[in-house]
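Readers of this paper often ask what the protein records in our data store actually look like. Below, we set out a record of this kind in full and without editing:
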Amino acid sequence: MRLEAFFKYTLFAFVLFIGITGRWLHRSFGTITYDQLRFHTKISFLFEGLEPTFYYDFFNHCIFPFVTFLLIYYLLRRFFFLKNKKRRVYENVFFVILIASFSVAAQKFWHFDNLYAQSKLTQVYGDFYEKHYEFPKQENIVFPKEKRNLIVIFAESMESTFLPNTLSLANTQEEDFSPFGNLASNLGDIASQNIVFSDTESIGGAEQAFGVTWTIAGLVAYNCGIPLTMPIDTNQFGRIGGNFLGGAVCLGNMLDKEGYKQTFLVPHPKNFSGVGPFLKDHKIAVKDVDTYKKLNELPQDYQGFWGMKDSLTLDKAKKELTNLKKDTPFALYILTIDTHASTGYTDLQKCTQKYGEQTPTQKYKNAISCSDSLIGEFVEWAKTQDFYKNTTIVILGDHLSMNAGFFPSNAHRRIYNAFINAKFFNPIQADKIYNRRFSHFDILPTILDSLDVEVRGGRLGLGSDLLSNQPTLLELYNGGGGGYSKKYSKSPKFMKTSYIKTRQITNEKNSI
């Protein structure tokens, strides 16, 4: 009997915990992919810098219900089912129903079949990278004599899905792809007045590829043209003096070689998920919430969703830009956070709760609308500054929103992009902007093009300059038989040396 009881309690506790944590993770972060799960469970500094609210939320939605359900099951079993033999039979039926119910719930939130399929792919080596990765060679990346400045805003979870449904970039009548009306009107105005790459003739953007579904993965993909689907076990990711993809040549390395002063503003503690180590290893200085705490430059109400609220981060960006030397080209990168799932954060000193404040959906709409307003105001401010005439501003959603339940099932979801005041090296042609299939990886060479940089051959990393004559890999594979995600999800052999252990990429002839 004791062995039976131990087995039942252990099995129930295990299934219960998996089901409850799965529900919490899905509510907070959307559908979890294998690479995302594997990356975060391997990184020792995963929880560095997390706000107390995260632990409070985990306790309320995971630990408390877990203990409550376990206690209820113990009391039912101890004081009801075990009172007589007939009830013990009922207890076995009840136990099976419990296990089956929580198992179904766990599958609903974890999608174990997908995780298993993804794990099998990453255990198989392929030659996709060897065939398609374009090494960043100095002879193929030609900067202009007068270098342009760069500002990149990585807007948390920002999608073209939020843009006004009346906006038509190509002035054509097309199916309404926006279910949220005027939720992001400022970004809509920016899109209509500047260059926005789209997968349609109207509102659209980048597709989210496998391995780039969370912030650090998005940053790596945008800056290096590669996904975080590498052999994780052999990479220190900045731990104990190790490097974070130290062998990869990324945008920061390229701009550093050209004399750019580079700063990245991170609203949360920089070590979370390895953001700080990654940027440092690629020649970008980092200023995070702890930087401004040490300088005593934060007001008492500085906190937003996590770390600094976006209004403060953008104010810090203005100060950085004001203090820059005029004779040195600069690159300033800004990460926002207040539109993170599941409800975001609305800065009531800057915005109103015009969508209501009762439900999670209303709160998330307010957060998106507020972030849209703050980014729009920052862009308008930048236009009045002396540096603007020689500065390209790029706005990029870091990934699709993880707030899966927020969207209708038929929503055409794409990642937002906008290139403001860009001076493209290649001519702007409608067929290069509209009806394109592209991903994070194609943004790296396109950003360089927007700085009047010639990318000879039109390709860098796994990306294609969207204004070049080169098709993207999405267009190449899905247009000619498919298999794109399946092929590049396989582990590349050369990443073990080129990206992780050494800087062998730089040993290529004339590489950066």
Remarks:
- Residues 2-122 form one domain.
- Confidence is low (pLDDT under 50) at residues 171-176, 500-510.
